[in-house]
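Protocol step 4 of 5: obtain the predicted structure for the target chain.
Materials: sequence only (see below). No template structures provided, no constraints applied. The aim of this step is simply to have a reference model before the mutagenesis design in step 5. Sequence pasted as it appears in the construct record:
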Amino acid sequence: MTIHENRDGKKLDHRKLLKGGAPAFLSSVMAALVPAAGILFLDPNAYAVWALAATLTTIFLLVDFGTTGLATKLAAEARIGGRPLITLFALTAVPPILLTVITLVAWPAYSAAAKLTDARDPAVLLLITLVGVGTTLRSLGLISAAVALGRNDFRKRSAILLAGALTQAAVTVAMLASGVGILSLGFGVVTGGLVQLAFGIILERPDRESASTEPVWPLVRRFASSRGAAVLFGVAITQLDRWSLGLFASAAVVTVYDIAIRFATMPKIALLAFGGGLVTEASGEPPAHHLLKVFRTYTKMYAVLAGVAILPVVFVAVLIGTTRTNLPLLVILPIAVLTAMAHAVNATTIPASFLGMGLGRPGLELLYLTPLVACCALSYVIGNLTQLPLGQVGIWAGAMFACSVIYVVAFPRLNGWRRVNA
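Step 4 output (structure tokens):
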């Protein structure tokens, strides 16, 4: 797209993004906060294992090969007939099933190497299985929610997302309160997944015929490869950190780090939820100056909102860390500050990510995720070799900051927008 193409761009529809993002925000916040509620019912040893299992719920849902973003794009372009939708359902179910099997096979070796005493509990294998089943069901429901977003059917999207999230939250907390322990998370994920899938099937059915006969398989393959790689890198960056810490750090350190990460990612979860509508903004080949305006507007907005959230995030993480563990403040505070700042800066890449999906160029993220995942892997190695948790966290946070800033600055040029005066 060049500067000379159709300069009469459409106006930014902030209300559409809010309507589409509100249910995703509430659903995601509950998914992040409910695991954190475990700290109220579990001791640090049990919570450390609970935290690792909670990362699996995120990993299994995130590794979707870009199917949710693609479903939104195809629905927005009226290309989501029965066959493409079935393809997306099948594709999105593969990762959680495969990853569950891999985790079950790897867990005995990990639990033997980890310094987490409760990692050797046989109930953990059942917990992993329940999480795998539940996230498979939820991933199928997320496709229906993504289609509803592409069709601007915000009520159906809200019902699908909130039904699953509320059910999972209610069941998990109720079982925690009744003394079920770490298995509460698994039962909550399964019941929430069942409800979300049921709502998705009932409310968001495919059209009998797609409005377009243009084949979508090339787009499916492109999203599955490039977007899938980006998601895998993202998982390595934001989820495997706790698994690395679990190999050499104490249960108290893993607990504090998990709490800090959960609250540090809360603002980013909100911004991710409200930014999903940017995929539709970039679909259908809109003019370049409109896209540049959207990018600049939302990047600045996200930077301000994420920055404002740093102080309260640090306060909450420090408060919980000092009251629920015996770690000194000099250990808790650096972890809280580094994680909050790293995720705040990384949140500014969200508009670029969604716009890239809408443009059909999801692989752009790999330009910054590739060096970032390499730096994060280095931080995990150094942390395990030196046995210094703050060493791992410091390198990880510095890489998040540097790579995110470089990508945001370079994004307009990567799309040829630098000559557009917007």
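Step 4 remarks: The CA atoms of residues 8 and 287 lie 7 Å apart. The two ends are 15 Å apart (CA to CA).
Proceed to step 5.
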